[in-house]
Amino acid sequence: MQRAVERGLSRREAVSPAHIGVDETAFKKRHDYVTIVSDQKEGAVLHVGSNRKKATLKAWYEGLTEKQREAIESILMDMWPAFLSATLESIPGAEEKIAFDKFHVAKYLGEAVNKVRRQEHKALKATKTSRVASMTSSTTPRT
């Protein structure tokens, strides 16, 4: 299989994608992850890395010419720190080119809203408890 992949890659023309996507996926439904770099316009897979480490993506970026790295207009990725770090270090102007995928943005937004909701509920519950305690501990008898 490795020979077939190498043969196919050697026949493929050099590409300079303007819009790329970087993601990881579990290999064979285990916790062995691979890094996938794809051309977002053409839908073609450009690179499959052996893991999801910073060095793997950085090595792919370094395999591009300076002109190809500068030609990248946008990078769609999740918020995996290794991908973010490798991209910021390797792509000129990456701060303006990175877009996070909506699944992860929605996930983190939902978690943040839920955290605030729990804090507010806890504070409200504490306020009610202290108010009830102050009402029941008053020295004046009720009639």
DSSP helical segment count: 6
Query: What number of structural domains do the residues give?
Result: 2
What's the assembly state of these chains?
single chain
User: What order do the SSEs take from the amino end to the carboxyl end, as H and E?
Assistant: HEEEHHEHHEH
The average pLDDT score comes to 86
- What are the low-pLDDT stretches, counting only 5+ consecutive residues below 50? none
What is the level 1 CATH name of the largest domain?
Alpha Beta
The second-level CATH architecture of the largest domain is 2-Layer Sandwich
Outline, from the CA principal axes? elongated
Strand content: 15-25%
Rg from alpha-carbon coordinates: 25 Å
CATH homology group of the largest domain? Ribonuclease H-like superfamily/Ribonuclease H
User: By helix and strand content, what is the structural category?
Assistant: alpha/beta
Physical arrangement of strands within the biggest beta sheet: 3-2-1-4-5
Overall number of strands: 5
- Main sheet summary: 5 strands, mixed
Q: Per CATH, what is the topology of the largest domain?
A: Nucleotidyltransferase, domain 5
**First and last CA, distance:** 89 Å
Give the % helix. Answer: 40-55%
Characterization of this structure:
- This protein is of the alpha/beta class and 143 residues long.
- It folds into two domains: 2-100, Nucleotidyltransferase, domain 5 (2-Layer Sandwich), CATH 3.30.420.10; 102-143.
- 52% of the residues lie in helices and 19% in strands.
- It contains six helices and five strands, in the order αβββααβααβα.
- The chain has a five-stranded mixed beta sheet.
- Strand 1 and strand 2 form a beta hairpin.
- The longest helix is centred in the C-terminal third of the chain and has 35 residues, at 102-136.
- It is elongated.
